[in-house]
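(Fold this chain)
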Amino acid sequence: MPSPEDLYGELVRHARETALLSSTQGILSWDEETYLPRAGRTHRAEQLALLSGMIHQRRTAPELGEWLGELIESPLAKDQHSDAGCVIHQLKRQYDKKTRLPQSLVEEFARTASLAQQAWVDARKADDFPGFLPWLEKMIGLKQQEAEALGYDDSPYDPLLDDYEPGETTANVARVLAGLREQLTPLVAQIVESRKTSPREVLQRNYPVGLQEQFGKQAARAIGFDFDAGRLDVTAHPFCGGGGPRDVRLTTRYDASDFAGAFFSTLHETGHGLYEQGLPVELYGLPTGDAVSLGIHESQSRLWENLVGRSRAFWEHMLPELQDTFDAARGVGLDEFYIAVNDARPSLIRTESDEATYNLHIIVRFELEQALLTGDLPA
């Protein structure tokens, strides 16, 4: 019989190979949202569905369950805070959850998510929500099936939330957001009622897209992003993807008459990218080498976007460089620009919202997602 150390070695090898497959899927998804030819959309959906099925097979393989069953009882798993103990317990947790999902559902979700993403891009461009509605309804239906397959005690949102915030519950998030709403709502109302205006116009002059890209890369590099291990491209909705800590791919979108939109989205995604580039390469494929949760990930993106990117100290350094790059920024004083980038007002677009209103978008989405999932709100 293999020793616990030998079994653990097999577990690590299996996990890393699975992660390599998953990273391949990640590159295909990134390409789908950046460079994929329109005619290749259906083929890409089938590629992603096939890969999702293969990855699911590996994550639910009977031999994996046997290894984990033995290792969880071994001395290696006794201390959950040790590297080996953490890996064993986290992979056992993932295995127990993944084995509740049928492979057919996993593949169908990957296929539908791919086609729905492509349909959303077209619908957004044409301002055609009815054209996207059937895809939204299908995605909600698949998520409802997933929640039922995983099982839950209180809310169907719980097992889905667990994918992003392990161990978190809908009830606790609702409690946290209720307290936040109680303070944010009057604050935003006070801002609106103050009728104070900011020199926001300085951000809405002519900022050529090519120069915006150049300046965005300059800022990303200045705060530590390594472009030898990453890149920046254009997409319909900004995100950070890639294939691992040495291949991190940022995306953003540009508007020649709105400097702030692309710039702060770029800083936001750079924050995600810095977290990814900071993950230990030697632990690639293991829970100890992965992002701990989406909440922690988002804390890094928001830190660089707002606490750094909207600070006076940041613009003391960057404003002269901005003025060297853009004619539109010349003659703008530091105080004026600092106030402009910290302008607060309600808006419909989450990625372009300010610090005061951003979390209201999150609260509304949280409530909408629950209502859609339970059927209380039809799509």
User: Anything to note?
Assistant: The chain has three domains: 4-151, 153-195+356-379, 199-342. Residues 4-32 form the longest helix (29 residues). The beta strands are 230-234, 240-244, 247-252.
